[in-house]
Each structure stands twice: as structure tokens, then as C-alpha cells.
Amino acid sequence: MGRSAMHSLLGWVFGLSIALCFQCAHAQGGFPQFTQAEQEWIKAHPIVQFSIHEKYRPYWDSGIYPKLLSKLKDCSGLEFSPKWRSSDEAGIHQIRNGEVSPVIDPNQKLESALLGRLTEPIFWGQDVMIATQSNSASSFNPKIEKAVFFDRGYDFSEPIDQARLLNSPELIIQQLLSGEAHFAVMPLRLAIHLSKQLNLQQIQIRHLGHQPFAYRWLIADQDRIFHSIVQKSLREADPLFMGDLLAIPTLPSNQSQYLANWL
């Protein structure tokens, strides 16, 4: 076989292997069919900076956001870089100065500061109540004075006094342990992570009857192409991986039995 023929054969084999690789990878999730405009946007914006509130640090530490963004990178080729905000005002400053593209889990104040739209649900959460063992036998009523709520930026089923909405998970736990608060309401993932991180054996977790709530991103109108890139990437990602990552978690076994007594 001549040298040119050999080169042609090697090139054909290489091309076939790449095609098969993409086909297999697509079957496992990860290679959406982007339009020309979407491909050009990705090329022009290889790094996407997003705004996320400091109160979500425990979510970051628990791994759910890094793993999710890593999967989106696998699907789109985009690199995601967090830009932490300490307040709504800091978030508005980031938005108006063009420092960020999406805003993770915005509240109404941030929504009104940005001309954009919310994504479809990225994943779902579920509120739970936590209490110390000394207060676990008490009946829970969210209207009682000694209940505090993690401010997750979404409306609760009933109006909550702003003074009882806290951005700091650590402060919530501190108030529970000191007796300043008897009960706290926060997302289940956050409660489980804090319980493990702080080794809080005296903390009990119980489900509430609230419907699950959606975690969404707010994307500016001028980046509407990015919105379609995110949606396509989420749809094409490996369903088994995404199912394991984003499923609402179950309570630890040492608290599940206790939980059954509450239901």
C-alpha cells in the first residue's frame, strides 16, 4: 500500500473513531445539537460568570452546584465561574455593570432589576423543619414567635415576618442551639448538609407538607441564546447522572425512623 493510501486509510479510521465517540457520548448524554448562532455564542463567551448569593455556600460545599456546572460544561464546552454576592444590592451592581450573565436563584428584587426571563426549573427542593431534641416534641406552627426561616428567595405558603427570614444557615443553627429559636424551616439539602458538616446529633429534621419548589436561573434578554444553550444541555445530559445528582435526597437513617413518628 502506498504512503498516500496509508494516510487516507488512517484519516478515515481516525474520522470514524471520532464519529463513533461522539455517537456513544451523545447516547450517554452530553452533546446537544446547537444551532450556528448558539455555537457562535459559545465561541464568543467561553467563560460564563454567574451571580450566586453567599447563603448558598453550603450548597456549593455539598457538591451539587459544582457537579451540575461540570456536567453543563461537558455538554456545552462553557466554563462556569461563580461571582459571589453578599446582598441584593451587590447582585444588582453585578447585573448593571455587566459582570454576570445568569443569576442563580434570584428573588423578586433581583428579577425587577434585570430585563430577562427565568429558566425552566434547574432542579427541585423541598422545605423541612429542624429542631433540637428539647423542642422536637412541640407541635410546629410557623406563626409562633420562635420559628426562623431560611430566606430562599421564594414566597412561602403564608406571609412570613421579614425579621424571621435569615440569609445565614450558620446563624439559624446558632439560634436553635442557643434556644433563641425553637424551630427553623430550610431546604432539605441544606438541612442534611449542615447536620453532617457540623455533626449535629441533637438536631432533628422533619418534612413539611409544602409542595416542592423550583430552583431557577434568571438570564438577561440580551443573553437569550445562552438560555437555549442551558436548556438543551440539561435535556441532553446523562439522565442517570442527573437523576442521582438532582433527586430530592432522603433523610439519614438515624433520622428517618424519627421522622416516621411525625407523619
Describe the structure.
By secondary structure, the protein is α/β, with parallel strands linked by helices. It has two domains: 32-122 and 216-246, D-Maltodextrin-Binding Protein, domain 2 (3-Layer(aba) Sandwich); 127-211, D-Maltodextrin-Binding Protein, domain 2 (3-Layer(aba) Sandwich). It contains eleven helices and twelve strands. The strands form four sheets. A five-stranded mixed β-sheet has the order 8-7-9-6-10. The chain has a three-stranded antiparallel β-sheet with strand order 3-12-4, covered by helices on one side.
Map the helices and strands.
Elements: H1 3-27, H2 36-44, E1 47-53, H3 57-62, H4 64-76, E2 79-85, H5 88-96, E3 102-104, H6 108-113, E4 116-118, E5 123-125, E6 127-132, E7 147-150, E8 165-166, H7 169-178, E9 183-187, H8 188-197, E10 203-207, E11 213-215, E12 217-220, H9 224-236, H10 239-246, H11 253-260
The main pleated sheet reads as: 5 strands, mixed
**Average of pLDDT:** 76
CATH class of the largest domain: Alpha Beta
CATH homologous superfamily annotation of the largest domain: Periplasmic binding protein-like II
Number of domains: 2
Shape: globular
Task: Identify the strand order in the major beta sheet.
Answer: 8-7-9-6-10
Structural class comes to: alpha/beta
Q: Based on the structure given, which CATH architecture of the largest domain is correct?
A: 3-Layer(aba) Sandwich
Beta strand %: 15-25%
What's the CATH topology name of the largest domain? D-Maltodextrin-Binding Protein, domain 2
Number of helices: 11
SSE order, one letter for each helix or strand: HHEHHEHEHEEEEEHEHEEEHHH
> What is the total tally of β strands?
12
The gyration radius over C-alpha positions equals 23 Å
Residue share in helix: 40-55%
